[in-house]
Amino acid sequence: MKCINNEFLSADTYKLLKLAKAKAKDINYKYAWVHKGMVYMKKNDDSSKIIIRIEDDPTCMSSNLKFLSLNVNSYTAHTASFELLVTETKPHIISVVETWLNPEISVSLNDYSAIRRDRGFTDESGRYVRGGGVLCFIHKSLKSKVLFISESNHINHPEFIIADVTLSTGSHMLISCIYRRPQGDLLDKFFLEFGKLYPHYNNVLIMGDLNCNLLKSDRASNHLKSFIDDSALFCVPFGSTFHTLETDSWLDVIILVSKDKLVNFSKSKPPFIDGHDFLICEYKLGSQNHYNKVVKFRDFRNCNHQALSQTLNERLRLTDIDPEMIDLDELVYFFLYQVTTSLNIYAPMSERKICRPKCPWITRELKLEFHERDALYKRYKRTGCQNLFSLYKIKRKELKIKLMKVRNDYLKSFLENESNGSNIWTKLRRVGIVKSKQSSPLDHFDADQLNKFYANILKKHLSCSRDFILNLPHLYSKKVNFEFNWSKIDIVDVTKNLQLTLQKSSGKNPDRLDLKWLKDHIPQVSLFLNLIFNRSLETGSFPEAWKSTKVMILGSNRKLKSLANIVLPQIIIDGNLIPYVNTTKHLGVHLSANLSWDFHISQFLRRLFTEEDPEIRRSDRLAAKNNISFKMPNFATTTYEHSFVVTAIRLWKDLPPEIVNVLSLETFKVKLFDFLISNE
What we know:
The chain is about 35% helix and about 20% strand.
């Protein structure tokens, strides 16, 4: 028999292939192989292939787990019915309560391991007291470990088992099987032990007969319902599970960690044993943590940097354009287009699929030793020589120890040598020690709720009227003549700051142009960038292509109606469209990419409702009316000019005369600083 396999197999597929190989030997088949996740067998070269199906083996069902829970009311009396039910349903985990077993009775079930808790105490005559008992069967394809078994021998105390089960995905499940006799003590003891373990598990299962009728609102049922709600668990809605001639009750339960884990559920149509239904539930497993990442990058391996520099010089030549005749946004888009097209020629974008996290501590020498280890195992499989297998195990053990030491040494030196805090976290995420989790408030709140919440905050203080702004200059008198000066930047400033930016940790750029791609071509782009920066300072505006935030316009219904003929940009955060709201007046909300909020007066509303020429700045108008000569830094005034001027004027009115009337600006700054510190 030949085994043909050239794929990396999952644990379940590999297990099925091993079974197929064993079966092929028994029935004298020549070939067994795997193709696209399916296992095939073939008798000889001329025969047709057959597919090995997995329906007969529940252990190969890697996507879901099936649970069975029932009250058997004496295991020995209903063994045949129970085993027939297991054969038909093929569950992975079985909870059996009221087993009525004692230590002298042994039980077993094919392909299942058993965990049991017998009542086990005797009466005055020395006979075992009949009743109670909990039994849990776990399929042998799943590894299990007992965590806690209740030990009390009082008949009214709940009987339960808590165990850890290792799933096929590698994750762990906390399972509990419980029996509480009618009118018995409440489940406080179980809740206490369960609460110690529950926070450490993402998969939780509770099964059993609790004799708490969830169809009623008595003390016992309310106690259980409170536990389910407080623990954020989900009780599978089976409805009535115990039936008598007079009434139906919901006594048997299956409780899961979340409703999302429930695939389907069912119960026996007629009662199975002594009025109790058996319960079946299918549980959805999380997918295995496959590391499958596609990385996009520019491939500079074959880049001709000299030709790239010449192309950038030709395309970014300032003599070919008239900057004064081009809008700032068009100037930036021209720069981005020319640089991107040049990079696409000499360093095109490429994609690479990464199947596992990067392990920088694995050197070439270690990889060669891994290859030698694998070669020993292949030779053993080919020849069956036990000496080769012994050498393989020795080599494998040595490599495990060596790999752990190399990894620890690398991480130790890495943490000792790294001084920049932001770089430490970035590199720790890259090596997989720290997991990055991207979250947003929109994961927990509705966008409308957030808008209303922040709109209410904005309405805490009434917005000022236009007349109030116009009358502000008459509310104070000039005390000091001063002037703010702003000068243009030069090519030296641009080049220096570009070099400093390259040394910082990388981040996402709004224009998707990574500065590291141009680290060898700074002289070619710095002259054009110098032009853009100075143009931005002169016009008091910021290019749209470099904005990482947007402004949400808020206003009254009347004023928003005036925007009907104006196309407002959509505000999209994490793929969610944030609607415009109209619950405040004259105000705007500055919305950043991570939904951090900042209040300011919207530039858009200023342009819309200001009748004066927009080129005449409000700070200049206020200064002119009060015979004060000063200039605001243009790069900041587009967003914060109004609020800054209003705040400055109000502060000036509150200053004492000994500060306002000083003759020197240096003395003024010192006294003002002391005054502000003393008022904090």
